[in-house]
Amino acid sequence: MTTDSGRSKPPALYAADTPPRTKPSNYPEPYASRVRTRVKHPLGDLFGLTNFGVNLTRMPAGAVSALRHAHSSQDEFVYVLSGRLVLVTDAGRAALEAGMCAGFKAGNGNAHMLLNESGEEAVYLEVGDRSAGDVVSYPDDDIQASFKDGSWTFLHKDGSAY
Asked: I need a labelling partner for 155 at 20 to 30 A (CA). Which of 40, 72, 83, 144 fits?
């Protein structure tokens, strides 16, 4: 099996042994530093998946998954493999532990994020589609994002560039 670039890709692998993403975050500063301790392993990319992404994400104690956000077009799903996390949504806080999952329907405006307030590492799978034209709102921060041509563009809420 080969990728579009001609490189060989494995038919199966151990997720925990895959290399982490080289760029820890797409956020501009000051937001990138908030999520700097999380480690994402882009599993879907290793298989050449283009319709949706899959990440194995490791969050040490005190880590944050992302800024609290809501997608206009992209659905998201998380499944906790180990550890304990706190899910923060517009409805409040909910405890998540290994074996629990959560889903976030695109377009409903329910902003969400995960926090690791425990004293141990937490690991989860995150799955999201890659819908072109997605716009992401961040109710707690002066940032907005849009997904065009396979990459993210970040602006202040007034439309000015970072």
From this structure: 40
Cβ count near 120 (within 10 Å): 11
Q: What is the pTM of this model?
A: 0.90
State yes or no: cis peptide before 30, omega within 30 of 0: yes
Q: What is the pLDDT of residues 91-148, one digit of tens each?
A: 999 999 999 999 999 999 999 999 999 999 999 999 999 888 999 999 999 999 998 8
- 8 in any annotated domain: no
Which residues are CB-neighbours of 23 under 8 A, at least 6 positions away? none
- Radius of gyration of the CA atoms of the chain, in A: 16
Please report, for the chain, how many H helices and E strands are present, in that order.
Answer: 1, 12
How many domains, the chain?
1
Structure tokens at 73: 């077009």
CA atoms of 156 and 144, how far apart (whole Å):
6
